Amino acid sequence: MNEPHKWEFRPPPGGDVGEELVICRDKEMCRLGVMCPAAHSARELEEWKKRKQEQIRKQIQKGTYSDRILKEIFSESSSLPPMSTSLPGVKVVCDMKENLKFVTRNSSAVWCYHLSSHLFLKGISLLHVENLTSC
């Protein structure tokens, strides 16, 4: 097994994996210090790019969140309850019709789901929705 890489610089800023990494304009006298979202040298920027590439590689190996949940649910040793289209005490409302008819190619649609419950919900997943944006 590979030994964890020892990095020289602070971790790159969090956020979107595709977010562009840049060098700080005030790198010599940056008032933000380690909280600065930009690299303070070309070497730090290069390391950040390598770390982001490593992060992407690991995410691809893991698969999507939906893939991992499905694998866990369908494994024989799973202690998880089966999937369900409804839960007692949980209300799910979608603001779009179920059947849509597109008149052109490359059409798109947006569905907004609203979940409400008086219960504490843990581990709720809408499957196959990796590219969601909030309504």
Question: What order do the helices and strands come in, and which of them pair?
Answer:
Layout: H1 42-62, H2 65-74, E1 90-94, E2 113-117
Antiparallel strand pairs: 1-2
Give structural notes.
Helices cover 23% and strands 7% of the residues. It folds into two domains: 62 residues, no CATH class; 36 residues, no CATH class. The protein contains two helices and two strands. The protein has a two-stranded antiparallel sheet. With 135 residues, it is α+β, with helices and mostly antiparallel strands. The protein is elongated.
Tell me the radius of gyration: 22 Å
State the domain count. 2
Instruction: Give the integer mean of the pLDDT values.
Output: 77
Main pleated sheet: 2 strands, antiparallel
Shape: elongated
Strand order across the largest sheet: 1-2
The number of helices is 2
Structural class: alpha+beta
Helix content: 10-25%
H-E order: HHEE
Q: How far apart are the first and last residues' alpha carbons, in Å? A: 43 Å
| Uncertain residue segments | none
The number of strands is 2
Give the strand content: 5-15%
